[in-house]
Fold these 4 entries.
Entry 1:
Amino acid sequence: MANGLNPIAFLTRTRRPGRIDITDILSWVWLIGGTLIVLIPVVWAGLSSLKPAAEITRFPPSLLPHAAVQKSVPGFEQPLSLWNVTIDGQQKQMAMVRRIGLKAQMVDPDKPGPPISVDVKEMTQVQRLTVATENFTDPLTRFDFLTFLKNSVFVTVVATLMTLIVNALAAFALSKYKFRGEKAIFLLIISTLMIPLTVIMVPAYLVVVGVGLVDNLWGIIIPTVASPTGVFLLRQYMLTIPDELIEAARVDAASEFRIFWRIVLPLTAPALAVLAIFSVLWRWNDFLWPLIVLSSRDHFTLQVGLNSFQGEFSVQWNYILAMTFLSLAPVTVVFLFLQKYITTGIAGTGMK
């Protein structure tokens, strides 16, 4: 493998060959620390999604998913948890009948007799490594997770396609046409970035109510299609496309839409890919707007549906963590396929 393609050589290279500078140390600390800060919560959520419900709230927490070992004991209807107990200096495996304060009632699981009282400080629970697959299967079979997933996929795909088309058309007009008020319109579009979402949420909801799109997936999609960030990103990239290409196409009698579709859009592919990634992340993770617009469970998106696992008196953390971790898969796949366009697309927006 060539030196430039060797990841070990890339990570261990220094500013001066054969010498380690303070900037090299700071760079390694920054990169390794930043990577750990990002990865540790994701790894923790992934491992916690495999734990039984009781283990998630256990303190002190464990890194790997474990479950208490239980055994059916004659004379008891429910299986009892097994504990390693120290009695008279000897360690035995006992089954716990009940716990009262700092004392626990224990019996021999093989030859149960009268319960004996044991100090909780003298006992440790018997556990084994386990994977709670029901955290994933229960929401898929007993709840409406697949419906939530279908709704989220529909909203994300349709909203992203409409966002790309609408913002590309606006960016094409603002970058390749000269007309009175062009800069004023662009500044007006960019200035909307400074308006907080909470300010326009109530008027936007009233418009959705007026057109009859409440509790409808289109009520989520349509108000979010026009994005000032998308217009700015695509306009700045389209400014780098030579005007001579468009003039040559006009000389060949190409229509304006054909110029846009066959020339401008293909050349803007890196910026479109960046906007597509942003749009997928926005739509997929959106919670507040769908929560306001949607009221029927059949129309809930994934993020709103996950909120249904949080009750008034209890929170089903095992289901929430499992489904949250599962919901990361689609956006991760999109990012992996389009990541090569990110640097090119963002860097190209500032070239002119």
Note: The chain has three domains: 3-48, 70-125, 143-348.
Entry 2:
Amino acid sequence: MNLDSAHQAIEDPGDTRPILIVPYMWIGDFVRGHTVVRVLKQRWPNRPVDLLVTSLCAPLVDYMPGVRAGIVWDLPRSRLALARQWGLAEQLRARGYGTALVLPRTWKSAIAPALAGIPERVGFVGEARFGLINQWRWGEKALPRFIDKNAALALPDGAPLPAEWPVPQLHVPPEESARWRQANGLGTGPAVALAPGSVGASKRWTYYPEAARLLAERGLDVWVVGGPGEKALAAEIVAAGGPRVRDLTGTDLRNGILAMAAASVAISNDSGLMHIAAAIGTPTMGIFGPTSPYHWAPLNGLAATVQTSTAVPCQPCHRPVCTMNDHRCMRDIPASDVVAIAGRVLAEAGAGVAR
């Protein structure tokens, strides 16, 4: 039973104290964190919800229903940066939060909410955060999936988990994606967005250049979407695919969001862009090798989950780099299969495609 259809108890509709969520800051995890927002809004419809966010993820907040504001504050990963923590705490204190949900289990993530004096600081036991978290939750390791661990913090302590969580949502106005296409000279025809990057080399499918060529031969426009780390791979894909293939990689995540919103179908590794496309509602094909779709596929569902039909005994290994079986979990997924599936997805979506 989805929480949208459940009779979720509303707690004190007169409570208007703002709530802060300290989420995980990887792009895909940040998108999945919108489920936490939706659970909180069902529980307290009149309490504003803000998100702490990095500069990288900040554009996502603009498209998240139910989020009042993003607090953009970049903290270095390699050191405590106490002065930066104090600066953040001053901003949080000025906003008068009544509750903070600290999703990561790290000591560092709980410092600023504690320094800001937020009265209720909710989080799982971890890293000796005594005094930083004052509403402890136990049993995180017993929760089966990443989303269960996060969204459980938005429920009352001890409440049973629902069979289904509200899915993440990103609402991109059609006129905004249309303006983006026009500004980039991308026309109005059906297009396939390819997201060849990921955190961890083992999650990257091998045959994007060949897939781009086959898609272009079918008369489709192909967009390569990703960050600056995918520039070299994008050049290889463009060279293989020809003039119908465009390199749209860059440093601004908003560009990737709008590309995924404008595309007819998205083909992606297990990555943040996969979660973005699915949350927007673009038909999304997720290619999985070393990771488990059960644990890491979007809650929104996928138009197709693509995995090898070869029996690979080490799959899933969840390792960032393949150390055995010559990366067969990805190498044994041929480009022709992926393109054939994309054709079916496009047909089901009503987008024209040459045969």
Note: The longest helix spans residues 335-349.
Entry 3:
Amino acid sequence: MSFLVKTSYSHNLASTAMLMCSSFCPQIPNQFRRRPISSFPARPLFSVSFKALSSQANNASTKDELPARIGFLGIGIMGSPMAQNLLKAGCDVTVWNRTKSKCDPLISLGAEYKSSPEEVAASCDVTFAMLADPESAVDVACGKYGVVSGMSPGKGYVDVSTVDVETSKFISGHIKTTGALFLEAPVSGSKKPAEDGQLIFLAAGDRSLYETVSPLLDIMGKSRFYLGDVGNGAAMKLVVNMIMGSMMASFSEGLLLSEKVGLDPNVLVEVVSQGAISAPMYSMKGPSMVQSRYPTAFPLKHQQKDLRLALGLAESVSQPIPIAAAANELYKVAKSHGLSDQDFSAVIETLKGKLQKQQ
């Protein structure tokens, strides 16, 4: 399998060329098992220049180099800044969200609003979706007034949600019945990287669609990988988030143990940041964790969901992941104590003993 990564860019953009580049499966409602076929007429695949764009390119691109009309479904912690970066780059963006008010800031920046995923897909050349979980991803893509009903040959659907392999393949199959193209491209990164256009895209699926939307991925992210067949992107994202969740659980233990034996946990954060186990996550989250503050960048409930999906993925290939399994139990306890919507670093609260004493 070949892995293609976005090139880094010099100040001379004119000389920069783009590189051409678990088994958990949620119960799929019966109504989604029939594959509706769009009756929309076929039209040629939208034209786009393959000049690579950097997130720091100061909008050097023009609309002519991008798909003419871009849809974005799911305007939450991640989707909102991603769509905003597309708007700032001069893209024609149409948005949808279950709660319309979340779209208002984007509408004020020039985005158009449609009342259903179907309408967005029907009116756009390529549609992105950033949804909370596999169930939402299936519903938005394949449910009543879903994306599938608005797709047709010449269009593309890019799901940047974090889902399991089977869900991604299920959605891909439905999209392809319409003659449209499908790409999964889950992202590594949370709220701040999304705002700064520093996400990492883990793409798999139709390579021609990957090449077409690469300039858009470059607006929203700092790097991208093409991983081959549908499912590989989903699997890579679950492995990455499995590691991240386990790291945070272990870091939480270290912070509390250092304090319990009379050490300054703030000094521990500094020591860790200068050693072989240094990670940006520790330096970024550590100081606020010491102060028991957990501003939400990546909701704890999503981290637990990803660990759950990773456990299913591991089970499908008979791979033991005992550390991730233990971490998952910790996040489940955190959820049961009402920490679901706080940042995943709030998992440290489950180790303090206070929550258990409240029962």
Note: The two ends are 51 Å apart (CA to CA).
Entry 4:
Amino acid sequence: MEKTIEHTSQQAEIYLPSIYSLTLEQLQAWMAEQGEKPFRAVQVYEWLYEKRVTSFAEMTNLPKSLREKLATQFTITTLKTLVQQTSKDGTMKFLFELHDGYSIETVLMRHDYGNSICVTTQVGCRIGCTFCASTLGGLKRHLEAGEIVAQVVKVQKVLDEQGERVDSIVVMGIGEPFDNYDELIKFLKIVNHPKGLHIGARHITVSTSGIIPKIYQFADEGTQINFAISLHAPTTELRTKLMPINKAYPLPKLMEAVRYYVEKTGRRVTFEYGLFGGVNDQIEHAEQLVELLKGLKCHVNLIPVNYVPERNYVRTPREQIFAFERTLKKHGINVTIRREQGHDIDAACGQLRAKERKEETR
């Protein structure tokens, strides 16, 4: 494992809105307000997402007056790398510092099919899942769309040095994406746009713990983006113990929303199911899960849980994982076991931040 740490400092200066937070259409509208031609917005996008510059002064095909105007109204969000860890399997985990001193995590995972980045949408989280380090210390604030975009740009610049690119994105880092819905949607539009980072919609996955009104809204967006539910339990009673959000949005209502999504979009949904030793990993739980998902166009992703020191859960024995998988397959449920990555670094979501920034996660 390699680990590098950079000096950190709190920044007290006034923070301008991030230029990364603007969709191309929004930037074109801003240009029109300034009396500029729409093609100037495309030029800015090229500088940001193709050349990946860090200052407006570098945008040399723009008039100097326009560059100065941009610099007075926007910032190009840059993230300071506090910690960078590299696993033996090539997984890279970053702890980034934001302009106000808060920190977030981003993970680069290497697969046979390409490089995938897991991004964060909030500083902390208010959902309170009992197995997750991300929720330690609660929610501090939402991220701007530009701060989510900046995570992808920052990791892409690391990959630029290796002649590689970000091939796919999963929105499964710290925070509940649907709790920051508007900024999430802007982020998705920016990274998906051909003039932006041009990540195909079918190469982007958004996960939610189950904020039901937003599931209906997301279904109505009409995107081709993949959708996942953090399920982790097959019954209302057990899910409430693991995920307090189930009190506000109970499992039967959640499944109604999921069925609406599938019917409206024609796309399958993925259920993330973390296996916790002796809690939700028995054959009876697998059979209950089969009953819950019966007739639904779906895929189950079984996740052997990473041990989190601040939490009490233990790993499911290897043979029990396979027995759970076999039970689902026997009943026709499409299922895979997530390949473990970054096991020799702080791989669990929120774990690196919890270790390095204790004042944020008390």
Note: The two ends are 27 Å apart (CA to CA).
